[in-house]
Here is the input.
Amino acid sequence: MRVVTVDGGPLQIQDVVDVANGQARVVLDDAARDRMAPARRLVEEVVAQDRTVYGITTGFGKLATTHIDPEEAARLQVSLLRSHAAGVGPRLSDRSVRAMLLLRARTLAQGYSGVRPLLVERLIELLDRGLLPVVPGQGSVGASGDLAPFAHLALPVIGEGTVRVDGVEQHAADALAAAGLEPVVLVAKEGLSLLNGTEGMLALGVIALREALSLANAADLACALSVEGLLASAKPFVPQIHRLRPHPGQIESAANIAALLAGSSIVASHADDLVHAVQDAYSLRCAPQVHGASRDTLTHAAHTFERELSSVVDNPIVFADDGTVVSGGNFHGQPLAVVLDFLAIAITELGSISERRTDRILDPDRSAGLPAFLATDPGLNSGYMLAQYTAAALVAENRVLAHPASVESIPTSGLQEDHVSMGWGAARKLQQVIANTANVLAVEIMCAVSAIEHRAPLTPAPQTARVCADVRELVAPLDDDRPIGADIEALAEVILAGRFDGYLQ
Here is the structure.
């Protein structure tokens, strides 16, 4: 298992994905401990001198003008965690929680939070020992970061709240005791630093981005299969077209589809036919332009996430070099919220165009001679008719979810926090859009493979033939009607796992 080192510097997207998937261990570099020491000393000076500094010797949010006596500074931090643990709803997955623990540890190790290395060590120990905090999925407005989710994430550090160990929920105090760990006694500033920041929505976004990349690959692959299944033309994918409109994603998508179709006897069978497929439908002919726009959005998101993986997002920020503690707004999730919304739109479009190709395959009037709904004995059997209904339903749901959360600010904390990002909500609905789109693409792939089989004795391209064989390992041909929901979900699962990515490399 590879090791991801938290040293206060930037992390890579793949680091987060590997830790989230349980494929990498996390260790704290000794240099990070030294890096954190000056800011911690400054926080202790602030408390000793009874200086008025937000979150250290004051209350929070609207209560920022309420002074807290130095002897109450530690108690204030515990009260903060308890009061902010107000989340509700479905619990986050283990993947999401692991990513959040990693990113929270990274932020604190940067040396601008003023906390002890002990806090980072404990977060990493929770990861290493599989003591995963139980975090409700609803309750964050995305500023001052993801407060409610992080409060639930942080409670086990002090021996409170709930953790999940090997899938079983336990009281954190019991799980810590069984692991031989003592609850951490917080000191000034530490509770606040466990809460402020954007790492919650960032964690969900990074995981979603990795799955979104697999969806983009699966969309190109599905299109190539549909081109063969529908006896469509490969000419719209030639590189000279796309050099004239050089959007990187468009060029990549066209190259993927062209490579997948190389050597196809199905495509060759009508390549010079001036009657058949003179001009294909947009869902086929314009696939590189549509898929490519989504790919470019993923690239933009990756750049934004990479910047955030090197950013200081705590508040207040402790500048040990000049002895100041400054309250700012780096915790605000707007840079991520907008991108997360953009990703939802981009992924929705991959599903939208895919469903149109599926509908064309199943319609006997537009499928170039395929049986109605690819059914054996149409009428007695309905074939894949209802699979298209499912795809249509999911596309419709995605269009609702694609409405941007980032424009839906609702003020909080007595109008002190009068503009919030809603980035957490954007990340949560993006997860559903991705799950829906994986199923939509699974429907297209399943139908396109069946369509290709109907073109025998013509044979598909070597690459698409391999895909067809892989699909048939998971999903049997549809002879007489049977329930196919499980088949769709099985294909969607391997799409999201990236099983089809290798065909495009």
Notes: The chain has two domains: 2-196, 204-504. Residues 2-196 form a domain with the Fumarase C; Chain B, domain 1 fold (CATH 1.10.275.10).
